[in-house]
Request: fold
Amino acid sequence: MTAPAASTDVVTLRDLDEPGRVPALVAFVSAVAWLLVGSLLGLVASLKFNFPDWWTGWAPATFGRVRAAHLNAMIYGWASLAMLGISVWLVPRLVHAPLRWPRVATGGIVFWNGAILVGVLALLAGWTDGLEWLEFPRSVVDPMLIVAGGMVGVTLLGTVLGGRARHLYVSVWYVAAAFVWFPIIFVTGNLPVFRGVESAAVNWFYAHNALGFWLTAIGLGAVYYFIPKVLGRPIYSYQLSLLGFWTLAFFYALNGMHHLIGGPLPTWMITTSIVASVLMVIPVAAVAVNHHMSMVGRFASLRYSPTLRFVVLGAVAYTAVSLQGIFTAFREVNRITHFTHWTIAHSHVGVYAFVTFVMFGSVYYVIPRLVGRDWPDGRLIAWHFWLALGGIGAFVLALNLGGVLQGLALMDPQVPFQASVEAAAPWLAVRSLAGVVLTAAHLVFAWHLWKVLRRAPTVGPLPPWHDPRPVVVPPPGPWS
Amino acid sequence: MTRIWALLLGATAAMTFALVVLVAIPRVQLRTLEPDPQVPPYTATQLAGRRIYVSEGCVYCHSQQVRDPSFTYDTLRGWGRPSVPTDYSWDTPHLLGTMRTGPDLINVGSRLPDRSWHLLHLYQPRAVVPWSIMPAFPYLFEVKPAAADGDVVVVPPSPYALPGRVVVARPGALALVDYLLSLDRTKPPVATPAAGAAP
Reply:
């Protein structure tokens, strides 16, 4: 065997994966723990609509506190931690350089967990900033999150800057940009200088962008990685990737005020957001066509790869939730759906059917490569998939329908307010049942994760990915 | 793309542009807004009540904004005139809300000015509104054998009555009701130069 030329190195995927192994594992396992916590909180909050006199004697169990704890446990606990996990695992592979300062990343992920724990307990104790999506107390928890996220962000950006790939793959654009975007919006959203309608504008500037520039960015980064990776064929169009990325960056950021349509803000702000919302059709179509064309002719693979099944459904949900969002931004639709459970359905299509499904798929792909053994039981994966799909399907249908009925009742001034409450009630009961199914799905998932972590190393033939081929990497790129 | 710095700078530029449009320009525009003298700052008790409104998450089911009649029928429900920015001069955090599981509250103090109604409603919503799905807040009250001097007593009707005992509002319940009663933005607003104006 000849020695490689001086300017190139031969590394294996394992060399690239190894430094990120511990932070990714810690992130994924803690994410799943928060998924269980968040599920229980969500279920309790949902049942409170059906049984308003249930468990009212203890302040931390009141609806308003549990709902905030549910949202924050899911967004900053489950989704964000899973996203940190996939980021530290994915970026080194894509830039052909091992993770820089992995201990800093692990420390950041552990500290992030501490922040979420303090934050969720604070919310249950009634200590909140009172802004949706920004409830965590800004005097304690938010600075912790900034430091913790910064520790992970520094290792990731350091890895990218020291990377050796000549070309930055589209997933890197999304992930690297997310670690620039998130601190900007998070700090802005938490500045304690806004009051009145300005506070509302900044609130929804943040909350909408948390979805667009944090959850969506890393979610799409993962989709762009796993579809071509599992199928073994390149993404359909580089140009569409570029178009989708930059139009998302410029249009999505202006969308937030569509949460305040009809509200007491300067009208031009709301109009700006409605226009930008409609323009979102460009990135959404670009990404949807790109993903769909990459899949065409290979849909049968969905049967064999759990990762692909979750990720592709997540990608479809991204298109669906975006189109629903554009639709909802039209004044004629918004006058009915605003202030109803339609919005809750919409947010769950985004955070669950899109982001959470993509993260499930990611975990199914990455965990075996982190622990060196395969998932022990395919049936548990199937149970997880169908319970999650059935649960979220029932959830979204029920609340979309219930929300429209509620909204139509609210729109008729001849009908007493009571009618809007009664119109939504049966659908809120269906939502609770869906919540039970989703919680069951998460218990199956967590149980399976526990089994794969506890299991002895595989005996017999190793999975094909166990012996990865070497990768020849070019000399350092122009930016390093 | 091959240049990481171009990527990061472009990403930052996109976000900065949105920050200027949706945060900086409105800040400049709304700065000229003088508080409406008909909407005085909250008193200490009202603020304490507002903090309970925030901590118990009332905002997740109750909005505090009336939309324009050209857009919806909020005004025909008797919820008040369309809201304007000066209705919120003293509000931090804002409580505009995104959900109407329950009715809008920006004028609840004008619509329902009775303190004992609110106290009973907080103690047990279904005692006054049978179809309500609002949570009861018994922990804002104290149940004791007899009322002491200065206690504000709530008298729940059957079937919520507690024979031989009295229900007394804790300070938190009294403050919360004080805040709810302060919610009255029914007077026509004094000139609002910036609202709705183009930049």
